[in-house]
Design goal:
DHS-like_NAD/FAD-binding_dom, about 600 residues, alpha/beta, six-stranded parallel beta sheet, Scytonemin biosynthesis protein ScyA, single chain, Rossmann fold, about 30% helix, acetolactate synthase activity, flavin adenine dinucleotide binding, 3 domains
């Protein structure tokens, strides 16, 4: 085994963080309730929106949030609220709040918060809990260590970067100082404040609350790390592997690629950071990705790969050894626990740094490539068979129409749900700009896009489109919430009366007897029953007109597309990954065709 390079040192630099000071000098003493103080301090942390479901145990806190300058949106399910808060953060860059009542209110939100942590969002959960004197007495929706495990829910850990139960108003200064510091850190930050019902109306002296102005911490690579990176990348041709963590460095990455002639590939979450129509773009890796990537990696023209802001997990790499170039990786990430882990045996020079700061420093020292240009493979453009029947709609025809009307014809954010919706969208859609496409690869919960689209559209005050399966729409959607607040969200439902990723995967693996069918559902009737607009599409010739109608609409809109369930979804490598994990697969009749299948 080749030893890894020694990890580089890092430097911490401080930049002004846009947080207004909370106190004015000489401010007179004033009493607030704990609930009001929390609302005011959240305002000063830059929170503009709170998403949740109300309940009696948090009535005082709900009232305080509602009477603040924050916009408060009441959802139909706490998981939907948490997904919406996550996507609102990515749409604006501002931290968001999720509020829940005690018991099931809080536990319902956990899946969405799990996704927030995995995606790297900045979200604060405010939950109610049972007051100290009533714990262990079988109160309504009791929330305490008598009913729920404390570790990991009410304490910091894998789910929450910071978690605390507030037992006294005197705790507020240090709690909000910790939250301010957490939000100022690069990367995600998910916090949980559990607030007993009785404490919410306790009084706190406003003059004792802290000034929340802090510096925004940026991790810069050391001069030694930059010099070593330049040395390694100058030894031969290299590729750039772009992940979601590099989304704030799109301009710098484009400059680096064009200066050096490097081939560029991206993770599914990294689509659009580097323009997908650029001649140096060789494709998307991983789930729903492109065969052109493997064509490039097998060409033996790449000595090393510069990895920027991706963990190289299974959805991005399938852990394929073919993705490891002879010289290994220069792996840059804000999280020091990421570089070298997914490919533990590969030679890796790890750098902890903010991606934008790293590439800016690299550009100052990286020599321009003077070698003759190398012809690079580009993502395949699958031809759509002409003269096919107009019914039902082939998913690839739907994607072509979405590309034309939504991606190229509007500025809408596009989100794809897990499952076949993910693979069809990731494989076929092309983005030339960052922050236009959102998928979840870490958690991949059904209902993420179906509900998160409401938060994205509301936060950006513009169109957001969710491409979802019928199973996800039946599991969790927030059409009613969008109607209440007149949020211009659009749902494009791939309706095939199946959990089709599971159906196709089981068929491929030769496993019989499992039933993945769903009773046929009319989502237009559901949408109109909730007060939204909708249109059902049965024919391919009607797809573009339906999309144009949805984009032009000023109200929530559902497009129910009856798709061909037998079209095989694209997944370039998922089968090999399953085989490596011990799943015995039956070869498909056409070995060139691979379909996607969820984790087992």
């Amino acid at each position: 085994m080749t030893p890894k390079y020694t990890a580089s040192t890092r430097q911490i630099t401080a930049e002004p963080y846009k947080l207004d000071g909370y106190l004015e000098s000489g401010k007179n003493s004033k009493s607030l309730t704990v609930a009001d103080a929390i609302a005011e301090m959240l305002e000063n942390l830059g929170v503009g929106c709170a998403y949740g479901v109300a309940g009696g145990a948090m009535a005082s806190l709900w009232g305080a949030l509602s009477n603040s300058t924050m916009q408060v949106l009441n959802f139909r399910h706490e998981a939907g609220a948490a997904f919406a808060a996550t996507e609102a953060y990515f749409a604006t860059g501002s931290p968001s709040v999720v509020f829940t009542t005690a018991g099931p209110g809080m536990t319902n939100a956990l899946t969405g918060l799990f996704a927030a942590r995995g995606e790297g969002a900045k979200v604060i959960l405010l939950s109610a809990c049972t007051s100290a004197g009533n714990r262990g007495r079988w109160g309504i929706q009791e929330t305490s260590t008598d009913t729920l495990p404390s570790s990991g829910i009410f304490t910091s850990g894998a789910l929450f970067n910071y978690a605390v139960t507030i037992e006294s108003a005197d705790q507020l200064p240090q709690i909000f100082r910790r939250i301010a510091l957490g939000l100022a850190q690069p990367g995600g930050f998910v916090a949980h404040l559990s607030i007993p019902t009785r404490l919410q109306t306790s009084l706190v002296d406003e003059t004792n609350l802290p000034d929340l102005g802090v510096g925004s911490l940026s991790v810069a690579a050391s001069e030694e790390a930059i010099a070593k990176s330049v040395e390694l990348l100058s030894e031969g041709p290299f590729a750039i592997w772009v992940g979601f963590g590099a989304r704030n460095a799109a301009e710098e990455i484009l400059q680096l690629a064009e200066r050096t002639g490097a081939a560029v590939m991206c993770s599914p979450r990294g689509k659009g950071i580097f323009p997908e129509d650029h001649p140096q773009f060789v494709g998307v890796t991983g789930l729903g990705g492109h065969g052109s990537v493997m064509t490039y990696m097998q060409s033996a023209t790449c000595l090393r790969t510069l990895v920027l802001g991706t963990r190289l997990g299974e959805p991005t790499s399938f852990w394929s050894p073919a993705m490891v170039p002879p010289g290994g990786f220069v792996h840059v990430d804000i999280d020091p626990q990421v570089p070298g882990v997914a490919y533990a045996s590969a030679q890796t020079y790890p750098v902890q740094a903010d991606i934008k700061a790293f590439v800016q420093a690299l550009l100052k020292h990286m020599p321009e490539n003077t070698a003759s240009a190398i012809s690079l493979p580009n993502p395949e453009q699958e031809l759509i068979e002409a003269g096919a029947p107009d019914i039902p709609v082939r998913p690839e025809v739907l994607m072509a129409a979405i590309q034309k009307v939504i991606v190229e014809g509007s500025d809408a954010v596009v989100m794809a749900e897990c499952g076949n919706s993910f693979t069809w969208s990731t494989h076929f859609l092309r983005f030339a700009e960052t922050n236009r496409y959102r998928v979840s690869t870490g958690v991949g919960a059904m209902g993420h896009a179906a509900t998160g689209v409401v938060g994205a559209a509301q936060a950006r005050n513009g169109k957001a489109v969710a491409i979802v399966g019928d199973g996800a729409m039946l599991m969790n959607n927030e059409i009613s919430t969008a109607v209440k607040y007149q949020i211009p969200a659009i749902w494009i439902v791939l309706n095939d009366a199946r959990y089709n990723m599971c159906h196709q995967g089981m068929k491929l693996l030769g496993l019989t007897g499992a039933d993945a069918s769903i009773p046929p559902t009319d989502f237009v009737m559901i949408a109109k029953g909730m007060g939204a607009e909708g249109i059902r599409v049965l024919k391919e010739s009607d797809v573009e007109a339906a999309l144009e109608q949805a984009i032009a609409s000023e109200v929530p809109f559902v497009i129910d597309v009856i798709i061909d369930p037998n079209r095989v979804a694209p997944s370039k490598g998922r089968n090999q990954s399953l085989a490596a994990q011990g799943v015995k697969a039956t070869p498909a009749k056409n070995s060139a065709v691979q379909i996607s299948f969820p984790n087992i």
